[in-house]
Amino acid sequence: MTLNGWLQIAVFLLAVLAVTKPMGVYMACVFTRERTFLDPVLRPIERLIYRLTQVDEDHEMHWTEYATAMLLFSLVSMLLLYAMERVQQWLPFNPQRLSAVPQGLAFNTAASFTTNTNWQNYSGEVVMSYFTQMAGLAYHNFVSAAVGIALAIAFIRGIARRQMQTIGNFWVDMVRSCLWVLLPFCVLGALLLVSQGVVQNLRPYDTVKVVEPAQVPHIGADGKAVMDTVITQTIAQGPVASQEIIKQWGTNGGGFFNANSSHPFENPTPVSNFIELFSIFAVSAGLTYTLGRMTGSQAHGWAVWAAMALLFVAGVTVTYWAEARGNPLLAGVDQHATASQPGGNMEGKEIRFGIANTALWATVTTDASCGAINGWHDSFTPIGGMVPLVNIMLSEVIFGGVGAGMYGMLVYIVLTVFIAGLMVGRTPEYLGKKIEAYDVKMAMLVVLVFPLVILSFAAIASVASFGTSSILNPGPHGLSEILYSYTSQAGNNGSAFAGLSTNTPWYNVTGGITMLIGRFLMIIPMLAIAGNLAQKKCVPPSLGTFPVTTPLFTVLLIGVIIIVGALTFFPALSLGPILEHLLMLAGKTF
Amino acid sequence: MSSERGMYDFCFIIVTIVFFALSIGYVQFCDRVK
């Protein structure tokens, strides 16, 4: 570990701290319909959208109506994306004449982008046409992120409102998320990325002569290996910058290219790397301030921010430490950081970014439900690779995905105040609302569905031939690959551990179902809590009230998050990365 | 071959619709268990 590395991590955290208040105030204004500086431009567009879609912007929805609207919107969006993938060969903007996406892959991808997961069982540059990338995938990058923000705002309204039956209007919340929170920042961010060298065009791919011809093995017609001399290389192009920024700002994570943000056309410079990293946390950090502002308890918003920040620092510290110390099995190799080498475990990392920025990125992308990568998590040391996995297993509430992190954290807060209430023998309260049996039942449905879907599918895949045949690394690392795959998809993260061939009928279908369950079956009970809280009256604080603005609350919240995650997933982790770490120390590799 | 492809498309579309229909049923379930 180097001072330079720690300074880069510190600067990043300070930037997140600095953006929290302005972003939070701005979003609170947007969703309480206070005037913002963008209203003169965006308000006429918003009115036009409502006129065209016949939406009554003053109509308020009960939580069941809100949830049903969200589900129907997601159903139609998913079917449209599926259809687009299947007929892309007949659609415009396809200079490479790419054929239709196969059915299983199209289903997996449609589920993936509808749920804000962006798990990719394909290489974007060889499977998706420009039209599918722009009108299908980028469209979903915006609306799936907007749905997440809308849901978080609906939950916050549920806490803030007193004796009301409604939690807002889904269509209005989604349109305002898109127009005010996503679009303006993405236009600005895309221009910044273009200034750094991220490509943005609709040209056919370039073919260039390689500087140094390469010998590539190839199986000939007689079944014997022959060497081919490669003298040309295809360089993929495309409208990358516009998709890159929403991929980060909306915590989507699906790369235009297969190599994601380690590709020099997606992430060419340290500045673009910082912009992309910062974009992942900006909205989610701001939502903690929005929570405080809309519920009238700013200190509570900061207490939640502090819990997230402490968990983030713990994660990045472990990852950076594990990667910087190198691989103990490479005895005799100098793995120390010097002026001429970054040291540590550089396998799977871009030399442009080094260990600190790769460890930081891996932590940030899995704290949030982003899933973009600038290094290969599969190549991390066992402990370094376990941190991204654990981050997702903790339901990605450490700042989290846009909206998804906040509503996930609010469910944990309900559990925390419930446990605190049990400790002091009083009815638990949260910001003046009594937390009762129904709220805790719904919170448990949210908490239980996540491990249920991960562990069920991972267990089947670990023992059945259709699951194990995709593993490229034997031993505990292979189990980690399967576990990471389902965890990432259920958590709607989308980052891959790699080392697992998932473009198969089993992984395409079960992965698609996992993503749908991980998104929608968690959202529904969460909205039920919001709807129930909105109907309650506010009770004044008493001596038995557990304050949710203190460091004690922050510590207890962290404890609940870790204990729930640890109790659920520790057995699986002990068979995967923990066992691999112990065997590595014993000198055993696979 | 083409009818087989069509059958797969049909299956995936039905699976999607059934999932969302069940989800709407889950909304009603969560509302009624109160």
User: Greatest interface and its residue counts?
Assistant: A-B, 32 and 19 residues
The proportion of residues forming helix of chain A, as a percent range, comes to 55-70%
Number of strands of chain A: 4
Distance between the termini of chain A: 27 Å
Count of DSSP-assigned helices of chain B: 1
| Distance between the amino and carboxyl termini of chain B | 51 Å
Poorly predicted parts of chain A: none
| Total domain count of chain A | 2
Helix fraction of chain B, binned, reads over 70%
Tell me the structural class of chain A: mainly alpha
Question: Quick one: biggest sheet of chain A?
Answer: 2 strands, antiparallel
The largest sheet of chain B is:
none
Kindly report the spatial arrangement of strands forming the biggest sheet of chain A: 1-2
Mean pLDDT of chain A, as a whole number? 91
Low-confidence stretches of chain B: none
User: What shape does the CA trace of chain B take?
Assistant: rod-shaped
Shape of chain A: globular
Proportion of strand residues of chain A = under 5%
**How many structurally independent domains of chain B?**
1
Q: Let me know the number of strands of chain B.
A: 0
The H-and-E topology of chain B, N to C, reads as H
